[in-house]
């Protein structure tokens, strides 16, 4: 969108909110101002790299969009905190009806946020002060805005204009750059080391990951629109904190909790897409027939069923895996569904199953510690989870096909499950495919051969 169109959008949205604020001031006493505005573009048009206020964009598989900016309430986990601390703190908070918390948790709650992640707390959650939702295909957005206490119309105008300000295009403060990414030699060395652990019987599977870096060539709006068009079945999500962005187009639901029901996606086992329909079908058949991939996949399903049993009244997995096709790759996929025991929240479920063997390995605890100790760089939020939370319910998706963007530079992450018989060249190629969504969307040059 052009700078003038962006400014016109900002002005008109602000005028509608001020109007609704003035009407509400004469009527009810609710803290939040609620209105509906015509909106015929994607809510991604409100997202911008250079917005200093924390902000969030989310477009799950349903196609409904959410955008939030500014902080009404924030909740962060620091070095020593765990899931239980988050849960306790959430229990003490209250936010207006219809407003969710957005946030993310790390891959390993036991690890400190180091390296590129040291600029962020270990887990970040916030309820935005200006929140828009738009149903798929609709050209109307619902707006919820919480004015500062005691604000008058003038204050509200200034506040909303500020929340939607973009603070200069392309001007980034000097910050430390990312570390040198791993080349094939170092990656192969990590795979060999993982294979040694497996041969010696300490682990059965380890997910070995790598990252690539590059300059971002697109506006955030272009990036998000690119991802939503190309990956309609993934959850496209972007969250900024202190000007840095975490982005993901996740195909993998860690857990969704609505009332007493829970849904989990197990995703492990990967093949590329074919160049023709025939080749694509053949690759899918080979994936289904591959004992190595089926073993890798079954380990995830078994872990999830075992780990979730204590918080469930009933739980079941689909009979066998299906093939989930994404634009870049195809995966083996099994859905697990269950009925939760009374009082079990989203965070109880996440604590029980995360990180699953799909992103850590098996045995899960040993593999998680192994990854944290031997990856060679801190995973932070990569292979962590992001999503929404309201009163115990919500959805968390695994932060895969993801990137961290700081001052116009991106680190793009991908990992592969290593089991007995894995080959470093094939795994490198798989990691390249997994990086493709973010590379293409961000316009970062890439595709490096082994
Ligand atoms: C670790 C990643 O993906 C995970 C690993 C998979 C595999 O090894 O087959 C498949 C899907 C994901 O659960 C990633 O995309 O970075």
Automatic annotation (TrEMBL):
<protein>
    <recommendedName>
        <fullName>isochorismate synthase</fullName>
        <ecNumber>5.4.4.2</ecNumber>
    </recommendedName>
</protein>
<dbReference type="InterPro" id="IPR005801">
    <property type="entry name" value="ADC_synthase"/>
</dbReference>
<dbReference type="InterPro" id="IPR015890">
    <property type="entry name" value="Chorismate_C"/>
</dbReference>
<dbReference type="InterPro" id="IPR004561">
    <property type="entry name" value="IsoChor_synthase"/>
</dbReference>
<feature type="domain" description="Chorismate-utilising enzyme C-terminal">
    <location>
        <begin position="185"/>
        <end position="434"/>
    </location>
</feature>
<comment type="similarity">
    <text>Belongs to the isochorismate synthase family.</text>
</comment>
<keyword id="KW-0413">Isomerase</keyword>
<dbReference type="Pfam" id="PF00425">
    <property type="entry name" value="Chorismate_bind"/>
</dbReference>
């Amino acid at each position: 969108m052009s700078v003038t169109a962006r400014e016109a959008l900002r002005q008109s949205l602000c005028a509608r909110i001020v109007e609704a604020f003035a009407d509400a001031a004469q009527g009810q006493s609710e803290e939040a101002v609620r209105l509906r505005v015509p909106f015929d573009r994607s809510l991604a048009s409100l997202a911008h790299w250079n917005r200093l206020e924390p902000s969030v964009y989310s477009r799950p598989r349903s196609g409904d969009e959410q955008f939030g900016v500014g902080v009404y309430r924030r909740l962060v986990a620091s070095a020593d905190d765990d899931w239980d601390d988050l849960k306790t703190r959430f229990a003490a908070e209250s936010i207006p009806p219809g407003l969710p918390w957005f946030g993310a948790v790390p891959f390993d709650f036991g690890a400190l946020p180091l390296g590129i992640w040291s600029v962020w707390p270990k887990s970040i959650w916030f309820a935005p002060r200006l929140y828009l939702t738009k149903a798929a295909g609709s050209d109307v957005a619902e707006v919820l805005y919480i004015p500062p206490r005691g604000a008058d119309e003038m204050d509200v105008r200034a506040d909303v204009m500020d929340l939607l300000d973009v603070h200069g295009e392309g001007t980034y403060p000097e910050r430390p750059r990312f570390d040198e990414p791993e080349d094939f030699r170092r990656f192969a060395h990590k795979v060999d080391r993982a294979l040694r652990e497996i041969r010696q019987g300490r682990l059965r599977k380890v997910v070995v990951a790598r990252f690539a870096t590059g300059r971002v060539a697109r506006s955030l709006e272009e990036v998000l629109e690119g991802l939503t068009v190309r990956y309609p079945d993934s959850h496209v999500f972007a969250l900024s904190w202190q000007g840095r962005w975490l982005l993901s187009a996740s195909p993998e639901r860690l857990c969704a909790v609505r009332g007493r029901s829970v849904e989990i996606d197990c995703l492990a086992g990967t093949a590329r897409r074919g160049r023709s329909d025939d080749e694509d079908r053949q690759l899918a058949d080979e994936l289904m027939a591959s004992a190595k991939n089926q073993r890798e996949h079954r380990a995830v399903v078994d872990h999830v069923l075992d780990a979730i049993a204590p918080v469930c009244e009933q739980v079941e997995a689909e009979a066998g895996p299906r093939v989930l096709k994404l634009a870049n790759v195809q995966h083996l996929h099994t859905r697990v569904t269950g009925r939760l025991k009374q009082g079990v929240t989203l965070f109880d479920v996440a604590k029980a199953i995360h990180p699953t063997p799909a992103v850590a390995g098996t045995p899960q605890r040993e593999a998680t510690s192994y990854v944290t100790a031997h990856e060679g760089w801190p995973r932070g939020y990569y292979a962590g989870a992001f999503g929404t939370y309201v009163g115990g319910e919500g959805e968390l998706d695994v932060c895969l096909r993801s990137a961290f963007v700081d001052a116009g530079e991106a680190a793009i992450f991908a990992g592969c499950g290593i089991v007995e018989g894995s080959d470093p060249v094939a795994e490198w190629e798989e990691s390249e495919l997994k990086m493709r969504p973010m590379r293409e969307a961000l316009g970062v040059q890439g595709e490096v051969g082994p």
